[in-house]
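I have been asked to look over a protein record a colleague put together. This is what I was given:
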Amino acid sequence: MDDSALTPQEVADILKIAKNTVYELIKREELNSYRVGKKVRVDMSDVLAYKNRTKSRKETVGSKLPLSQENQRKNGFVLCGQDVILDILSRYLELHPHGIQTFRSYVGSYGGLYALYQGSVQLATAHLWDGDTGEYNIPFVRRMLPGIPAAVIHLACRQQGFYVVKGNLKSVKGWEDLKREDLTIVNREKGSGTRILLDEHLRILGIDSAKIKGYGNECTTHLAVASAVARGTADLGLGNEKSAGQVKDIDFIPMQTEKYELVMKKEDMNKPPFQAVLEILRSPEFRMEIEGIGGYDLKDMGKIRQ
């Protein structure tokens, strides 16, 4: 069993919950931890033990979101996606005069759009690049929500690129390097926007993914990918720039600017909670808080692209 020491942020990424929730679990003695100096650390074995203990529960870890899609439809306003922007948006939405209690579902872009089509979430986010058109999100929304008019609202632009060990010892420069036999990669899970970005570039370049070392090794967050590269278990990973800055001994090679966007059904747009979302995204207060985090281009935040 892997007993590697994890930071609270890495635990949060693995469980797809907020870092503050990790501290709360530790405080309630639901998750074992220890200190190294002033730093809190959690062993991977304790994270796995926690997950196994909670598998039979009816609610997701660290959230009020019911597991069954039927209960989601009946009981909540669900915002789907993984970026910290959405955690902040949820807080603003609950405090807005026309807002609503918001449940978070931490799944990738593809799964989020599918859930929106199924009616089990009210808002989904996406950063899905279509290699044939060079367009983000709109081609996927049209294909994955057939017959459902949908609005695509811009949130932010982010930089996607390669994570390599500090100093870029293997001289990685671009997508063509994925053909090299001396590189081992670590991948994101199927359905994530980052995985689809990689797969689209492989398709365009005619690279057989089966010949790429490490293609089947998957992580569920950008931070986990960057950490794997920093630990030397892979030479290369793909993720956003912000996460690269949170992991020691990682260099970031920018490859592509992506659009991170919110998707809702047009039939819902005039309902109070959805109007509240648009007001929040266009408010100076919300923009200032996101700018304070850094790592985002917010020039067109709140703009309806479709």
